[in-house]
Structure formats: structure tokens, C-alpha cells
Amino acid sequence: MTCCQPSPRRMAEFKIADSGKADSSRGLVALTGATGFVGQRLQSRLLESGYRVRALVRPGSPRAGQLLAGCEAIAVRLDDTAGLRDALADVSALVYCAGSVRGRVTDDFRAANVDGVQQVAEALHRHPQSPPLLLVSSLAASRPHVSDYALSKHEGERVLHARPELPWTIIRPPALYGPGDQEMLPLLRWLRRGIAPVTGPLDQRLSLLHVDDFADAVQRWLLVSARCRQQTYALDDGTPGGYDWPAMGRAVAGRTVRLLPIPASVLRSAGAINSLLSLALGYAPMLTAGKVRELQQADWLGDNRAFEAATGWRPRIDLATGAQRLFAPVPRE
Hints:
Layout (H helix, E strand, L loop, with lengths): L7 H6 L14 E5 L4 H12 L3 E6 L13 E5 L5 H7 L5 E4 L9 H20 L7 E4 L11 H14 L6 E5 L2 E3 L7 H9 L1 E4 L6 E2 L1 E3 H14 L6 E4 L10 H9 L4 E4 L2 H18 L7 H7 L3 E2 L4 H7 L7 H8 L7
Parallel strand pairs: 1-2, 1-4, 2-3, 4-5, 5-6, 6-11, 7-10, 8-12, 9-13
Helix pairs in contact: 2-7, 4-5, 6-8, 8-12, 9-10
């Protein structure tokens, strides 16, 4: 199988559509995690900007139908060395957006967050043109002791640090929100109503970023990736020092929000019980002991200055603007 001519098996599994928007001069971008919340927004932005996009999706993935028209799909496992090498043979860049955020044990996070990074790094090492690689990591990678998820993100970054021959860049986004998000949306809805549970200290400071601004950041990186070689950037929406919970409430609701702090002891107990139940029942929980430790950190903050200087990117959407767009009434036909 070659990338330009997928095998009959892969062609049968995924219909490859062509919208006619792609401009071959922009190049072909390979994208992992294309069917997730962030990946779908990246598909849209890159196609609109004239790039050809090749989504690397798991064989048999039920979400392959969520790919946009114009996005080529190739079914390949990240541990399929030969298939991955073929899938990347003619790409001009790779954006690694795949990741696991839920898991029962450490190994549940490793497949996508560590092992997959190792596989694509090896494939690009063998690539004759050595195209640039963007790893979408997390602010959590800066504190690997906090949780299994944070440790896996940290180890995924270390994979690239051990490959000085590759033109890689790491971006650590903060909490992302926007159209299609299901993780931040419940919290934002509570804040919008004027009353919300709080899972961290009231003076906790958090950076946020709208997914459209993040997609813009990736597009800017594609244009000037050579300036960002072997650099790590932590992003935010341009709000200095991020938001504490009262400020977050004012931004989303436009007024003072009644905040209901959940005691840390209650969160820890719930996380421990959930972790035990997940082992017994075989599901991947979101709230675990590690997640509670993440929620209880004093801050999770990005700082755009280095990335702005390297790329010229500027975020355009603060939380007040993003919330207004998110909750704007849908116009009737």
C-alpha cells in the first residue's frame, strides 16, 4: 500500500471524498486524532486554508464517518510499522493530536500518549525528507507526578527529546473549549446559569483557549515550523495569569456567579471509589484519584510569548467572547 493509492481493503473501509478545496502547493498534512473534538476542528481549518489532509484512523473505527469531505482517510494502527511508514511516505507535515484522557491504569494512557509518539517518531526518522512533527501535548506534562495521565504526556514528550535528529515541536494547550466540546461544556453551562460547583480552590488560576484559536496556532506553525524546531510552547487565550473561578464565572455569565466548592475530601473519596469500580467493571473512568489531584492544583497556566514571537500567532477569543459565541441562539431557517 502507498499513501497515494490506498489498498482495496482500506478503500472499501473508508470513502475518500474530495471537495476540490485543497491546494497541492500548501502540502499534505497527516493528522492523528482527527475524529476527536480538536481533530475535527483542525480538519476544517486546514482544509479551508488549502491544505490536503490525511487522517490516520484506527481500522474499523466507528468514528471514521465524522471525517469531513476533502479529508483523505487511511486506516492504520500506530503500531503497524510498515503501514505507518507507507501512510507518511508523501506527507509534508504530521500533527499528532491522538491521545487518551481516560484510563483505569497507567498502561491505558501509554498506547496513544507514549507508544504512538514513539512509532511516528521512528517512521519520520526513516522518512527521506524528515517532515516536521507537531505533538499536541498538555499542560499536565509539566507535572508528571500528579497523575498517570500527566506522566504519560510527560513521557510522550521525552520520546521526542530523545530524537534530536527530528524537526519536532511540542505544544501544550490548556483546557480547550468551543463547538463540539463535551468536557468543558457542562461546567460552562453551569456558570452560564449563575451557579456552579467548583472542583478546585476558588483562587485557583486556569488558562483556557478556544479551539478556533488553537487551530489557528497549528496553522501558523505549519507556515513557520522551522523557527519552532525542538521547542515546547504552553498556550493560553492571552489573559495574563489566566482566570480564577470568580473571573471565569463573570466572563461566562456576565455577572457574579454563585460558586459551590466541593470539598477536596469528597472529591478524593469519589475518585478512589470510581477507580476501584472501574477495575471491577472494566470501564475507563474520568474521575480518578489522579484526576482529583489535577483538579486540586493551584494553577494550570500557559504563556504565549515565546510562541507568538516565533510564529506571529495571536489568540483572538477570550473566555467572554468564546462563551458568547458558544451560547448564542441558533438562527432559525
